[in-house]
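Task: sequence design from structure.
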């Protein structure tokens, strides 16, 4: 059995899909509990928004450092370690806040642990899939990223069902249950075959990448893609419950769950039509829809229309992150691990900055999340300008990405 797994790259893809489900757990379980944290631990929205910033801030630090150490340590060791750290963070979240006199440092320590794991996953999963001997890379990349969305949906639906049956006060028990996913996938990654992109000396160096104008344009696109997605995703549950005055169960299903479903659907649709539509057209259309959804969420006088805006936002942002990765591979072929790490870094800057902006602006206006989300409109607007600018740059010389087999 183990021998068959070691020789079949379908198992590698499956492990990568579960890797993104793991990342969905560590990024989206805690936001379901933001108002619970606020009530149980006396934590303000401003301090809760800083937890989001720490999560993605640590991930972006790992993204930056990973460009220097991943190739030396090896993909397999890093992937197994990433899952173990994610599991440790979830276990810490269940116990540390209650064990410490001040719950906030306990939450912070737990988030830092799983954020390190999440950062490694973000850096490694995409290049591992890119290096697999499969065709239709753009479609494979969109399909891969859709599993983050299905993981997000699973977190919301299963958590909502758990809270309905056992009560929200048993959330620590659920955190321990979620640990099974990263632990099982850590074992899976010990045996699946893994190929890497170009070896460090063959791929483009950070110095070479930073000398290209298109690289910096793509970095801005990644920042805006992450910010556009997480500005609504991280606050959807709290927004539905506090601003729209619906129950937590309904709010979670109609807010973050609908967001995740339509984001996943968008990525599957993008994979299906990746050969018929240009990446630039997909991204421009997505950014435009994102802007419309922000206006619906923040300005609509009807809660139903605001919730519909959350769902539309999920569909709108779904294609942005994977399409930017695919555009980078098209514009800068042979970028190697360093390029993926730096783009993951940029994406996590956006993931940290988007929710932080929403939280801070909301706090300035009496914790009004509508105003905070309206301010985040700046991200899809910048994304549109960035896509237009990238279209005026020439693509790099096409060449085969070098790959190497590792244990």
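Answer:
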């Amino acid at each position: 059995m183990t021998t068959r797994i070691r020789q079949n790259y379908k198992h590698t893809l499956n492990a990568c899909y579960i890797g993104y489900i793991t990342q969905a757990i560590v990024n989206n379980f805690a936001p379901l509990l933001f108002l619970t944290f606020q009530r149980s631990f006396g934590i303000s929205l401003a301090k809760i928004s800083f937890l989001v910033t720490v999560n993605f801030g640590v991930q972006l630090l790992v993204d930056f450092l990973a460009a220097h150490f991943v190739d030396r340590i090896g993909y397999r060791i890093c992937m197994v370690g990433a899952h173990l750290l994610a599991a440790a963070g979830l276990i810490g979240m269940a116990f540390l806040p209650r064990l410490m006199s001040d719950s906030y440092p306990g939450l912070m320590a737990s988030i830092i642990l799983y954020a390190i794991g999440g950062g490694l996953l973000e850096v490694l999963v995409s290049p591992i899939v890119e290096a697999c001997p499969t065709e239709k890379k753009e479609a494979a990349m969109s399909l891969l990223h859709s599993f983050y969305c299905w993981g997000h949906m699973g977190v919301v639906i299963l958590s909502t069902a758990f809270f309905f049956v056992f009560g929200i006060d048993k959330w620590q028990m659920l955190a321990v249950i979620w640990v099974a996913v990263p632990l099982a996938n850590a074992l899976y990654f010990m045996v699946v075959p893994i190929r890497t992109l170009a070896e460090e000396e063959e791929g483009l160096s950070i110095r070479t990448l930073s000398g290209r104008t298109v690289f910096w344009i793509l970095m801005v696109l990644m920042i805006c893609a992450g910010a556009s997605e997480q500005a609504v995703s991280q606050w959807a549950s709290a927004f539905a419950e506090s601003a729209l005055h619906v129950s937590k169960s309904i709010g979670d299903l109609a807010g973050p769950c609908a967001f995740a479903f339509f984001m996943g659907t968008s990525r599957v649709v993008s994979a299906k039509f990746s050969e018929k539509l240009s990446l630039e057209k997909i991204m421009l259309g997505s950014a435009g829809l994102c802007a419309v959804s922000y206006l619906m969420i923040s300005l609509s006088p009807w809660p139903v229309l605001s919730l519909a805006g959350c769902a539309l936002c999920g569909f709108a942002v779904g294609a942005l992150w994977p399409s930017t990765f695919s555009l980078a591979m098209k514009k800068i072929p042979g970028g190697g691990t360093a390029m993926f790490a730096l783009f993951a870094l940029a994406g996590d800057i956006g993931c940290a900055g988007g929710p932080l902006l929403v939280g801070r602006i909301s706090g300035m206006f009496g914790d009004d999340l509508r105003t905070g989300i309206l301010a985040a409109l700046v991200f899809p607007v910048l994304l549109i300008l960035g896509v237009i600018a990238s279209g005026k740059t020439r693509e790099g010389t096409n060449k085969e990405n070098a790959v190497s087999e590792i244990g």
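DSSP finds 19 helices and two strands in the chain.
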